[in-house]
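$ ./design --mode recover --in tokens.txt
reading tokens...
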């Protein structure tokens, strides 16, 4: 009897199979890795790229480039990436609905391979315009991958592994940042001869994904609910779960399918008007704004000057930066292993709380940095603490929660909204922080601490714990706050070839 109970428990509790693990690694390396890589890759070779801009302009027009024009061109080279990310986010819903989750990832490789070739030949072509355009295109790749990969993996994973697998994309983003920092060291590719190769390497993961990902299954939820192909969905589930009996999970999908047939596929406008999804929408907007407006990019921007003021030599700053990137990777790995035990909500609260405290301490440390000899070391410690806090919660968890808060018909549009907010907030910080730094100095981080605190309070009051819950159960958890009633009654959804019938049908009525 005990053995049978154990077997039943094992069936209900999904495991990490070889197929699921490889699909996760290939999709995250081919897509999420590039997001992180292209965030950091442009920092180290900046002096050599700007020299190239100057030389190219001089050869064309026989006069040196004005400093203001160089500033504008370099700002465009940096800011085109998040702007491309925003436009990539707008493409999420149409592509994943038309091509599927895996199909969208394969199509997205166009937006990586083409700009990689463009950046690789930019010096030979003597064109800085190519770099600016390529940064925009590779930004589209990042905008798509940052939303499609979490959606794809969230639909592949069993509910008890959804959090851990959902953090893997963020882990590969941090690995991408670290690889760009390591390869950008002056003795490697961050020099006058290697910078074009450094920029062009981003196409290699895309080629690997393009070759290998077709051998892995499409999202079973997409195949069953949106394509209506139950046989293919069942085969995909059997491969992913490593067992023949997947009836229970297929039943849950059929139940979700039945409950959504009346709604149909939701567009962004119809999603925003859905009363039953109101607080889910507000929550993903707040979390994505909090993630980017909490100052993580500003911390990275400020890090070099903090390290310099602490007495780190100019040549050694690049190695300290690599060390900071390694801390980021380590803490994200820790989040992968603890998210299913701790839950999403606790990691979000702890992460934003740590970031809030680190910003306040960093403000104090930067204010007294010139007058107290040991204060610069406090500044470095604050940077490391902030990055650690962001890595365990604010960076990875919003993607996981966005997947979990929405059912199949609403998920593409929800990711489209979340991604747009993410990239617009990213662009805003990059645009405004230099002015904040000039006007407020170290007190800029007081603004970020307030944003972290406000996001923390919202999560504490509104966002429920979603670990180990089905998508329908999470919908029920929001019902009271959305002022709707979720009733579960007799259903007629059936599985072909199965005698079992799911006993739940969702009925949503407004109070």
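writing sequence...
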């Amino acid at each position: 009897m005990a053995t049978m109970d154990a077997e039943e428990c094992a069936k209900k509790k999904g495991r990490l199979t070889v197929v699921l693990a490889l699909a996760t690694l290939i999709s995250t390396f081919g897509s999420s890795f590039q997001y992180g890589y292209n965030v950091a890759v442009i920092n180290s070779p900046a002096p050599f790229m700007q020299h190239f801009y100057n030389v190219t302009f001089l050869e064309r027009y026989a006069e040196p480039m004005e400093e203001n024009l160089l500033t504008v061109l370099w700002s465009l080279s940096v800011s085109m990436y998040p702007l491309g990310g925003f436009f990539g986010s707008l493409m999420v819903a149409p592509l994943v609905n038309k091509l599927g989750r895996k199909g969208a990832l394969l199509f997205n490789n166009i937006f990586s391979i083409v700009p990689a070739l463009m950046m690789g030949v930019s010096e030979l072509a003597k064109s800085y315009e190519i770099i600016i355009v390529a940064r925009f295109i590779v930004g589209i790749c990042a905008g798509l991958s940052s939303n499609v990969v979490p959606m794809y993996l969230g639909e592949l994973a069993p509910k008890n592994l959804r959090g851990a697998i959902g953090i893997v994309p963020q882990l590969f983003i941090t690995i991408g940042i670290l690889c760009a920092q390591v390869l950008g060291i002056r003795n490697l590719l961050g020099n006058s001869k290697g910078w074009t190769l450094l920029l062009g390497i981003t196409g290699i993961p895309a080629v690997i994904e393009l070759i290998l990902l077709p051998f892995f299954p499409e999202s079973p939820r997409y195949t069953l609910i949106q394509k209506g192909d139950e046989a293919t969905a069942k085969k995909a589930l059997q491969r992913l779960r490593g067992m023949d009996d997947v009836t229970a999970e297929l039943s849950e999908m059929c139940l979700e399918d039945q409950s959504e047939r009346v709604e149909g596929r939701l567009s962004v406008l119809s999603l925003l008007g859905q009363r039953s999804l109101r607080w889910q929408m507000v929550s993903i907007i707040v979390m994505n704004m909090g993630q980017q407006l909490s100052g993580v990019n500003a911390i990275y921007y400020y890090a070099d000057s903090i390290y310099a003021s602490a007495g780190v030599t100019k040549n050694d700053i690049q190695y300290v930066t690599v060390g900071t990137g390694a801390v980021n990777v380590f803490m994200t790995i820790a989040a992968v292993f603890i998210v299913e035990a701790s839950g999403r909500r606790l990691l979000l609260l702890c992460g934003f709380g740590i970031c809030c405290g680190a910003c306040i301490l960093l403000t104090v440390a930067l204010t007294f940095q010139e007058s107290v000899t040991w204060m610069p070391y406090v500044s470095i410690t604050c940077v490391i603490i902030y990055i650690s806090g962001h890595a365990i919660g604010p960076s990875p968890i919003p993607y996981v929660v966005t997947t979990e808060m929405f059912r199949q018909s609403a998920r593409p549009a929800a990711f489209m909204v979340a991604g747009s907010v993410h990239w617009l907030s990213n662009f805003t910080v990059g645009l405004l922080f230099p002015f904040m730094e000039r006007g407020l100095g170290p007190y800029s981080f007081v603004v970020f601490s307030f944003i972290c605190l406000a996001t923390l309070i919202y999560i504490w009051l509104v966002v429920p714990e979603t670990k180990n819950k089905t998508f329908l159960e999470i919908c029920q958890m929001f019902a009271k706050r959305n002022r709707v009633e979720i009733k579960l009654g007799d259903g007629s959804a059936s599985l072909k070839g199965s005698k079992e019938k799911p006993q739940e049908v969702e009925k949503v009525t407004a109070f």
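exit 0
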